[in-house]
Amino acid sequence: MGEIQVETENKKYEPKIAAFLCNWCSYAGADLAGVGRIQYPATIRTIRVPCSGRINPLYVLKAMANGADGVLVSGCHPGDCHYISGNYVARRKFALIKSLLNHVGLEEDRISFSWVSAAEGGRFAEVVKGVTERVSALGPNNGIFKVVDGGAADE
Amino acid sequence: MNKIINDIRETARQLLAEGKVDVVIGYEKGSLPLKATPCFIHSSEGVDSLIWDETCENNLATYVAKTPGKKAIVAKGCDSRALAVLLQENQLVRDDLYIIGVSCHGVIDQRKIGAEVGEILEASISDGKISVKGMEGDKEYLFTEVKDATCQTCRYPNPVMEDLHIGDTIEVSQEAAAFADVEALESKSDSERQEYFKEQMSKCIRCYACRNACPLCYCQECFVDCNSPRWLTGGVNRAENLLFQAGRVMHLAGRCVDCGACSRACPQGVDIRALNRKMTKDVYVMYNHESGISEEGKPALNEYSANDPEQFLVKE
Question: What's the domain range around A75?
Fold first, then answer.
């Protein structure tokens, strides 16, 4: 019986992934995946933002601190930004925050960035599948943004 | 009497007497040994309190935007770099600013001395030697032994912009920036680094002294004080502390001039610079950008290029 329980527990673990999607490309790409009935894991919690340039690095930090197991950030391909340069300025921020968080000891695969256009419904599903697989392999986010050994936040 | 100090006082006296500036921002002797304190001189009678030595550790650029009127500022290399970033960001008016440049040999790392002799009771500096009388013993140091970590790798001891230079300039080799300290950490494993930063973050008491000492943390409302959204819950634990420190470092990306004011202001000895240096290195390596080395130019995150590296993307 114990074994069965372990198995169901293992099956139960589904990571929670906060997905910040740009309104013009990636959100529409996710929409296309839906319209096209393309299956992908129900692990992402979509947060629609006007542009990937709108994503404050604090969103990523706060999502991790609030219990997300992973973060996915996706915007238009470079050159395709609805606001011309939003994703270009975002790209620098993303590269830096990813590097910084890896440096302080956050696992490489917790935070993922990608460019998905409105026409890439299939690719969006692939990205979500890939991200989900990697985050699941890491397990729950008990690293640097959580205090598991008591003394947690007072809220 | 040191010639540099004399010249600073003379310059300040003239500027104030001629009405060219309303206030001179400089250093005066602090109430604790080996600690200079920033001072604001409004009339030519007060200039004799101005000093200049290895204890002048604050970054005076912090006070410039908050001080009304025309001002003169005694600036080391890092102060002038911070001023350059502030000018790039339109926080200052160049015409209201008179920069008295002084080349800096580095400042003293008090924590290093305090760790050996206990609380510092008395100290004197002469000819590159520092004699200290502490609670737990006396000791004499060579200045190079107790030079602050920031100053050891300093590439800009001479002000990058100034209206007047006092004293000699310092020769520094202008080869590529060295990041031995960052590389040492990078070469460790993920879990070792995680342990290191967990330990550092557990020391932090979130007094925000680092933020207040930083010349480039000038937001009207800091994200830590923001109520809506509440980025931080108010609890002091290492996870929250990391959120604060990482958020602050992100805000300083491509702007931090590596003056080390945050680390020196920290009462807990948190290795704040480890984060800032990593960011500085990334910006340097990825975007070939050094902050505040001239009045022109923009901070790294205000610019972009179509060819910016994007190895960080997912493989799908």
Answer: 12-138
| pLDDT mean over B4-8 | 95
pTM: 0.92
Question: Measured between alpha carbons, how far is B77 from B81 in angstroms, rounded to an integer?
Answer: 6
Q: Looking at the domain assignment, is residue A144 inside a domain?
A: no
- The ipTM of this complex is 0.91
Tokens of B193: 């680094």
Mapped onto helix, strand or coil, the DSSP state of residue B146 is helix
The residue with tokens 């692939």 is A126
Give me the phi and psi of B75, to 5 degrees please: -125, 130
Amino acid A87 reads N
Of B242, B310, B315, the CB nearest to A144: B242
Q: Quick one: three-class SS letters along B210-233? A: HHHHCCCCCCCCCCCCCCCCCCCC
Q: Where are the alpha helices (DSSP H) in A39-85?
A: 57-65
Residue A154 covered by a domain? no
* Test mutation, A80, A94, A104, A155, chain B, max B CBs within 10 A: A104
Chain A residues whose CB is inside 8 A of the B247 CB are 57-58, 61
pLDDT digits (tens, 9 = 90+) for B221-276: 999 999 988 999 877 889 999 999 999 999 999 999 999 999 999 999 999 999 99
What residue type is assigned to position B104 of the chain?
C
With CB atoms and an 8 Å threshold, state whether A130 touches B242. Answer: no
To probe the interface with A, which of B186, B278, B313, B315 has the most A CB atoms within 10 Å? B313
pLDDT digits (tens, 9 = 90+) for B93-107: 999 999 999 999 999
Q: Between residues 188 and 227 of chain B, which touch chain A (CB distance below 8 Å)?
A: 190-191, 193-198, 201, 223
CATH number of the domain encompassing residue A76: 3.40.50.960
Instruction: List Cβ neighbours of B153 (8 Å cut-off, separation of 6 or more).
Output: B178, B180, B181
Task: Tell me how far apart the 2 most distant CA atoms of chain A are, in Å.
Answer: 59
**Pair B200, B274: CB distance under 8 Å:** yes
- The structural domain count of chain A equals 1
